[in-house]
């Protein structure tokens, strides 16, 4: 029997007892009128009376409190089931407006009317996400930086001031504390199966959310404060997320693909059988264009599937279960790390066979700061669920299908080779990180080069008019700089990989753009990049940013000054300064191209060097900081406020002399690597 078949729960015994049994031990029937007044308001004092405290330090006694609140939660659940949708809206909807997502909470009410345990779990995940976001907005009435973790948010003095400490203690029994039910975490991290989440706890949290709205209204009236809602995060640059389909493929997750996925779910060892309803519900939601629901259901299942592989490959089966309050969960962060907490090498990438297929994709979509961080943003309520883009859901679902295939039996060969599945596997096998700092640097370089390439299209005055300006007749200084750049660039191009095109003209913008494209296409395994690499990349990205700003400033100034020239709106000194700018462009373009080639080559080589042997990168950083300082000064001199073009020429001359000296001493990394 496969391990995925034999696992009956991912909840440890104490956690399973707390969630599934403790709140059912008291058989009393609780009268809803005790906590609900005649005008429909929550009687918070009656609710908080069920919170028990330890005699030793007066902290919350979570065990006794869960047991005491069990009948109250059941009473609320029965009460909600007795209401029609219209009755619920009339009585409670206005108290939910403070969350800024009333519709989500109304949907949770609908869920409570059905018997689908999967839908209840989904509703609870969405409820906790939106509630956390709303509580964060309330926190900002009193504080500045909203805590990232829900447990810290609920324990904050700021929320206690608004709602009262006793009320916050009630919330912490259900969510946010590892000593309580901790419903948010056990669901979002994939520990709870659908049948292990009692619907009455979802009902109680819906009830408490309305009660919080009542308390907040009183507070806002007393303090005359206005509750402002933070804007939702919007996924930008969706083309960067477009892994499936691949660059040259037209893959569509149509019903045929999803039907095959449903067959794979039933047979794959990646899926715990107790979690099967979540997988089916996720695929169904995608078919119904409920993209946020699909991803919310799927992400915890990817985590529990990888946790199964992680605990098996690293021989720590106990880590498959929920951690107790005294330990940590085994979550994505640990599973994607290079080493375990005992410093041994993590074996999960070995099991995955192609680490890039899973690890780099997961790092991109979940962890990297410049990536979409889908799980964080969804679970913390930062995304408008109704506007969740199909493009993102498409990637998560397609990636999940590749994992289902990877961990399916050989007798599923026909499905793996199906014409709609095989292209997905091909895309996954050649995946390269999109949001690692190295990947972002490559993107920056190419965007900067495109900007510089536009210089050749800038409008300009006739050459004979340039020559009439005193001091520009010979133009020997610019020619000398261009010659110096050519010499250094030619030396640099000796270290271009053989698979990349060379050039007899190292400052030809067309050839440079082609070379940079090929260098950026060079595959670099970004997984577990050494610290020296990341420190170098930080500086290289700053250099690239400065270069791009110089280019944009030159374009803006050239276009504006040309218009003023044509309209004869320039004074004599301004005309001379404009012509000096045109003169400077002749050497600035090759300078910036040279720097882009340099930093692109460096990121390829620094990674290779650090993988093989350590080197004195502190000395190397000094060289990079020299270039960074030059580009920062260049930004200042070429700004519309300064327009110091003669100084730009002198600055460039001094910088090139320093760069040539460093190169001659062979202190650059490319020399250290050979």
TrEMBL record:
<dbReference type="Pfam" id="PF13910">
    <property type="entry name" value="DUF4209"/>
</dbReference>
<dbReference type="InterPro" id="IPR025209">
    <property type="entry name" value="DUF4209"/>
</dbReference>
<feature type="domain" description="DUF4209">
    <location>
        <begin position="131"/>
        <end position="211"/>
    </location>
</feature>
<dbReference type="InterPro" id="IPR039635">
    <property type="entry name" value="ERMARD"/>
</dbReference>
<protein>
    <submittedName>
        <fullName>EMARD protein</fullName>
    </submittedName>
</protein>
